[in-house]
Amino acid sequence: MLLLVAWRNLRRNSRRTIIVLVSIVVGVVSLLLYDSISYGMIRQMLDNSVGASIGHIQIHGKGYNDNRVIQTSIPDRGRAENAVRGMRGVKAWSSRVPSFGLLSSAQGSSGGVIVGVDAHSESRVSSIASTIVKGRYLEGEGREVVIGRALAGKLHVDVGDKVVGMASTRGGEVGSELFRVVGLFETVSADFDKTHMFVPMSSAQEMLDMGGDIIEIAIVLEQPEQAERIAADLRAQLGPDYEVLTYRELVPLLVAQLEMYDQMLVVIYVIIGLAMIFGIINTMLMSVFERVQEFGVLMAIGMRNAKVFSMVMIEALCLAMIGTVVGVLAGVALTLLLREVGIDLSVFAEGLRSFGAGAVITPELRFNGILAAVVTIPLTTLLGALYPAWKATRLQPVAAIRHV
What we know:
Helix content is 56%, strand content 19%. The protein is α+β, with helices and mostly antiparallel strands. Strand 2 (90-104) and strand 3 form a beta hairpin.
């Protein structure tokens, strides 16, 4: 009976009911969109960092991550590569010789990172080959180099021009080599593009007097969530002279930001919840005051305060459930649509690239986000209806019947 009466009351003033439902739907859709866009952007920043050069796991000589010098090379290249080659779950891997040095041309110079790579294996690990915007990718022969477009601008060079790379050799002397630019790449990270250049492995080893040694092995996994397990297996096989790190240890700031995201989202839920509570209180109070005589008659014929209270709360619950269901359906549909087409923020491209995010943001729908909206909105609506429901129980039947 209470449910039928509550439903009748909602239909009686359809305009107010629609206004409240619209506010609830907008609140649910806003929560889902904010969650999916924000989480998708942070996730995209992490994936871009991993895809550009880091990989899911890296192997170095012990102590390299704390002091990145070329003297700390991988002790036994063959052993390390065989361990990776035989590890289940590894999708691709690439050996590298990275070093810090000075890049110079006839018109400028800039500090940067010179990375010696095997062209074929590196194209399967990093996104450099797929981000070439002018010229071509490495073919693995001669003194060729691909550099970031931003770095090319600093050096005032283009495809076909020459640059000189200089870096400290393993013996402490200054090694240098003349390279010809064969391609320019442009990733989603402006800082990466300003500092990195990729050369054939043999050229880097010769310039740095490395012989056949390597400094780093970057690994991409079939399932990134298996990174910790596979890294532990590699540590067990290689022993204490090797350093095996996952992307969580290589880019801890982005990983921490992703893990702290749910805690930061609570603040947004509280803000939206408070705004909705005041709206619900105002609307339900108006509903109660418009029906003072009705409540007086119901109480005069024997309806107890508990049932009066329940009737108002059921009205609020009906509004919350209908609004939440419609809001979730609309929010999920809108998020899936935006996920397919992406959110083009090209006008803010430079700012986004400074954070390592692309100009097109892809929202990522999460079950936790849907669950939070399904729980938060009905709970907020019920909290907002508590005071109006209590107010209805404080009416005196005789005075309420005479109320004008």
